[in-house]
């Protein structure tokens, strides 16, 4: 159900790098492929310094449905990924947890999602103890969403 193309619409994180560079956010697309009925191949495309970059990741199935494990280099770099809420035809909200740090991402089938979906995302962000000042909305290819989300083009 998660297969196909997605747009990164918003992200909530206490990441200091994200806070310092939020003015440089670029439209980001993700392609999800289900490999063996369980694990996911994630291909992220984004612009950086006027070049397109592809980042490939492999999400391994975890013990419960809707949960995955993203392994990086070394033992300390594993990230638990969980589907918080999804309507595979329009949006998915994912939680990423590494140690005690958590972030929440909102993906849409299009770069624009409804206000109701944005509200769900913001509620989920608050539910994990993150505040609105760490929510970042990504620019779209045809318009710009403000940092606080008041203008949804």
From TrEMBL:
Name of the protein: CO8G protein
InterPro entries, A to Z: C8G (IPR043245), Calycin (IPR012674), Lipocln_cytosolic_FA-bd_dom (IPR000566)
One GO CC annotation: extracellular exosome
Record-annotated Lipocalin/cytosolic fatty-acid binding domain positions: 3-138
Alphabetical GO biological process terms: complement activation
Gene Ontology terms for molecular function: complement binding
Lineage: Eukaryota, Metazoa, Chordata, Craniata, Vertebrata
Highest taxon, organism lineage: Eukaryota
């Amino acid at each position: 159900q998660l297969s196909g193309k997605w747009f990164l619409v918003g992200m909530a994180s206490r990441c200091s790098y994200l806070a310092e560079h939020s003015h440089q956010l670029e439209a980001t697309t993700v392609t999800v492929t289900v490999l063996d009925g369980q694990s996911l191949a994630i291909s992220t495309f984004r612009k950086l310094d006027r070049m397109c970059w592809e980042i490939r990741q492999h999400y391994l199935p975890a013990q419960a449905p809707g949960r995955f494990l993203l392994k990086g280099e070394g033992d300390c770099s594993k990230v638990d990924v969980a589907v918080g809420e999804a309507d595979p035809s329009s949006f998915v909200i994912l939680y990423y947890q590494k140690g005690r740090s958590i972030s929440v991402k909102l993906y849409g089938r299009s770069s624009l999602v409804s206000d109701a979906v944005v509200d769900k995302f913001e509620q989920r962000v608050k539910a994990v103890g993150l505040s609105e000042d760490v929510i970042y909305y990504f620019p779209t290819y045809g318009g710009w969403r403000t940092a606080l989300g008041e203008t949804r083009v």
